[in-house]
Amino acid sequence: MPLAKALNEGMRKAMENDPKVLVMGEDVGKLGGVFRVTDGLQKDFGEERVIDTPLAESGIVGTAIGLALRGYRPVVEIQFDGFVFPAADQIITQLAKMHMRSLGALQLPVVIRIPCGGGIGAVEHHSESPENYFTHTAGLRVVACSNSADAYTMIQQSIASPDPVIFFEPKRRYWDKAPVDVEAAPADWRPLHDAHVVNPGEHVTVLAYGPSVKTCLEAAAAAAEEGRSLEVIDLRSLNPLDIDTVTESVNRTGRCVVVHEAPVFSGYGAELAARITERCFYRLESPVLRVGGFSTPYPPSRLEDHYLPDLDRILDAVDRTFAW
After folding, report:
1. Which of 4, 16, 68, 310 is 20 to 30 A (C-alpha) from 218?
2. Which of 304, 309, 303, 307 is closest to 290 using CA atoms?
3. What is the mean pLDDT of residues 269-291?
4. What average pLDDT does this structure show over 246-272?
5. Residues 127, 121: contact at Cβ < 8 Å?
6. Catalytic residues
7. Residue-wise pLDDT tens digits, 284-293
8. What's the mean pLDDT when you consider all of the chain?
9. pLDDT, position 124
10. How far is CA 106 from CA 53, 244, 254, in A?
């Protein structure tokens, strides 16, 4: 099923299993969301559980915090990634802090769904990658799905989490189809914060998450034709990070390339490069290289193909890892 449908099915399952799960956001009800991810949920669960909110992200998240304090499990949709910033105060100073502030007495099981990244020809503030703002904020779990199977399980695991979760969805992959086992028991699902080696390899470790995973798999297929074996790891969880899976791979390959759509400067790849250098210094054959967006605001749609990391830029970084 398409990734968007897998998210829909995952939320539907969570709502069926727990009457305290609520879905709320701009146009999530009658319209079914701008990407139709919540399509049909209001019809099946009613307007008291699938709530069309005013166009006010700070109010949406603030209300979700209050609902969580009263025992509900709100699932908030931020319509586009760049729209999350008006709610930054509520997320950073309230949602992330309440558990610590109350010495563990209060929990805020809120999921904030954020369609992220570019590639859909959208206008300003509709194609951003704000993950680092939230990985830097202690008290938040931050995850990113890249395929339909993970979307189905990870959204349910996030809703079940006692902690607030920032859930990034790759909007340009919403229509990509993949098998989804809806009959698998939760005990058989991959843990929410485990990375996944999606393409085993021997020569270079390539780390990615969200929309970049598919691009890296395409690069791995192209590299294989040239005799190079790329191990592609889908990080899935950005905070906490499954650093052990990353370390094992880089210690074995000796080379690493990190790929993400966000600007390279101060991007998530910087944290990965630092940690890998600390843990794998004596096994590295070259510096950890990063491939990402440029240090500019996201460009107009006609230029986004030049901005987003593509197969050629990834393969160029792979080539450069063999220059040392």
Report:
1. 4
2. 309
3. 98
4. 98
5. no
6. 126
7. 999 999 999 9
8. 97
9. 86
10. 25, 31, 44
Q: What single letter denotes the amino acid at residue 282?
A: Y
Give Cβ neighbours of residue 263 (< 8 Å, ≥ 6 apart): 129, 292, 293, 294, 295, 296
Helix (H), strand (E), coil (C) string for the chain: CEHHHHHHHHHHHHHHHCCCEEEEECCCCCCCCCCCCCCCHHHHHCCCCEEECCCCHHHHHHHHHHHHHCCCEEEEECCCHHHHHHHHHHHHHHHCCHHHHCCCCCCCCCEEEEEECCCCCCCCCCCCCCHHHHHCCCCCEEEECCCHHHHHHHHHHHHHCCCCEEEEEEHHHCCCECCCCCCCCHHHCCCCCCCEEEECCCCEEEEECCCHHHHHHHHHHHHHCCCCCEEEEECCEEECCCHHHHHHHHHHHCCEEEEEEEECCCCHHHHHHHHHHHHHHHHCCCCCEEEEECCCCCCCHHHHHHHCCCHHHHHHHHHHHCCC
Residues 199, 288: contact at Cβ < 8 Å? no
Domains parsed from the chain with CATH numbers: 3-188 (3.40.50.970), 196-322 (3.40.50.920)
Judged by phi (left if over 0) then psi (alpha if -120 to 50, else beta), residue 48 lies in alpha
CB 236 within 8 A of CB 268: no
* Separation between Cα atoms, residue 88 and residue 142, nearest integer Å: 15
pTM exceeds 0.85 for this model: yes
Six-digit token string for 224:
């294989």
User: For position 123, what pLDDT does the model report?
Assistant: 85
Tracing tokens 């890249």 back to the chain, one arrives at 146
Kindly report, residue by residue over 141-191, the tens digit of the pLDDT.
999 999 999 999 999 999 999 999 999 999 999 999 999 999 999 999 999
Residue percentage of the chain with pLDDT more than 90: 99
